Amino acid sequence: AQKVTQAQTEISVVEKEDVTLDCVYETRDTTYYLFWYKQPPSGELVFLIRRNSFDEQNEISGRYSWNFQKSTSSFNFTITASQVVDSAVYFCALRSIIQGAQKLVFGQGTRLTINP
Amino acid sequence: DVKVTQSSRYLVKRTGEKVFLECVQDMDHENMFWYRQDPGLGLRLIYFSYDVKMKEKGDIPEGYSVSREKKERFSLILESASTNQTSMYLCASRIYLRTDSNQPQHFGDGTRLSIL
Question: How confident is the model at residue A97, as a pLDDT?
């Protein structure tokens, strides 16, 4: 079965702190894809990044970075020097290329609050 | 930019009513999806459609049906609304590329539906 676990339900930090959002996934497929989405208070889910299972290279985009570790089935997301505009609910998602190829399985989401 | 438009941001209906939620995308995407989002449960897939007149059940299709008569429009129907269908409903679309099956889904702003 496909499963995504975001153990942190809510995180609250002060502006400029670094913060890491955890994502652990379960799948039996050898080929799969991982995604992160951001949901600001407006409600729309905004796509942030995708990573396929055969590309373990970590990625940095400005203040955002992602650490993909196949050995621990984790795909963690770090925001450096957080800002109030980063406040949102963040979802990690898993897409299998073999089973239910058109479906994304989402984690429960982590509500991140950045306080001024 | 991809634009996915959901007809209503907020909707209030009564138990037993037939409810229609509309979703339109302007990028000629083949795949479209309906999710519901509930606290602590993340997003769960209700139905999806590979292309016009095609539909597949997701993880929680009970009490719902869908219609995809035109490529740009995907409608979610609550045949006889019940209070446990009070939720946030999110529509998404995705382009299908034979050479890159890892395209992200693009989401609308969501419809917050209350069934009284």
Answer: 63
In whole angstroms, what is the distance from residue A110 CA to residue B23 CA? 26
pLDDT at A110: 96
Picking from A110, A112, A93, the residue whose alpha carbon sits closest to that of residue A9 is A110
The pLDDT value given to residue A59 = 84
When CB atoms are compared, the residue of B59, B104, B107 closest to A44 is: B107
How are beta strands B42-49 and B106-107 bridged, if at all?
unpaired
Residue A4 confidence (pLDDT):
94
| Contact residues of B toward A, CB < 8 A | 9, 31, 33, 40-45, 48, 50, 56, 58-59, 88, 90, 92, 101-102, 104-110, 112
- By C-alpha distance, which of A74, A72, A75, A69 is closest to A56? A69
Let me know how many helices (H) and strands (E) chain B has, helices first.
Answer: 0, 12
What is the token pair recorded at A51? 């990573």
Q: Residue A47 CA to chain centroid, in angstroms?
A: 10
The predicted-structure confidence for B35-91, as pLDDT tens digits, reads as follows: 999 988 889 999 999 889 889 998 899 999 999 999 999 999 999 999 999 999 999
Contact residues, chain B, for A35 at CB < 8 Å: 104
